[in-house]
Amino acid sequence: MTFSIHRFFFIVYNTKPFFKSKKWVIICITSQWTSVVLLSLPILFYKVSICSDPAASRIYTCILVVLIPSLVTILLNAFIFHHIRSSSRRIQPQAIDTLTNNNANQQMKFSSREVALLKQMIFVFAVFIGGWGPIYFVRIINQYVDVHTVIYACSVLLCETALLSVVVHLFIHNHDLRHYLSNKIQHGWRVEHTRLEREAWVR
């Protein structure tokens, strides 16, 4: 959810330097952890007689971890998509005096970008719900019906796979991140290569 909030302000308010600064990233991360700690406090006040979570606690956790982040992500992605679409429509009139074919190609390009953005949003949302939802739903169901350990293990595996998928998807589609990591790796390789050459020269 923190990534969605950061991306929303980064895209919608891209003219404001503050939302591109490290300070904004730190604020987003700090706010998330502070919210997590505060929202987790009610769980500590549940009275239990055995070493297990009560049903209310499991439902509360499911709402905090799955339902609320999903709702916030849907709303933010909808605003981002609307902003991108509106920006594209504002740019298109500037090319009215160009040839008809060029104008059609330009419109197709914008449509392709919008479709690609929508696909990415749907993918991330589907992976989040499909990966993190089952494990919490199984915990709630297990409160009333015995769930086989294989089903529980599969839900845990889905959760881990979803996390890996989101990380890989972020790396593949985030050009700035790939460029940053590539520069860091190349810089480290050049520094190490220079150091080895100096050591060989001294010998």
From TrEMBL:
Main subcellular location of this protein, as a coarse class: membrane
Q: List keywords of the entry alphabetically.
A: Cell membrane, G-protein coupled receptor, Membrane, Receptor, Transducer, Transmembrane, Transmembrane helix
Residue ranges the record marks as coiled coil: none
User: Gene3D superfamilies under this entry?
Assistant: Rhodopsin 7-helix transmembrane proteins
Is the keyword Cell membrane assigned to this protein?
A: yes
SUPFAM superfamilies of this UniProt entry? Family A G protein-coupled receptor-like
* Subcellular location(s) per record: Cell membrane
PROSITE patterns in the record, alphabetically?
A: G_PROTEIN_RECEP_F1_2
Q: Which InterPro entries match?
A: GPCR_Rhodpsn, GPCR_Rhodpsn_7TM
The membrane topology of this protein is: Multi-pass membrane protein
The name this protein goes by in its record? G-protein coupled receptors family 1 profile domain-containing protein
Question: May I have one GO cellular component term?
Answer: plasma membrane
Domain G-protein coupled receptors family 1 profile residues, every copy: 1-173
| Stretches that traverse the bilayer | 24-46, 58-81, 116-138, 150-172
Q: Which GO terms describe its molecular function?
A: G protein-coupled receptor activity
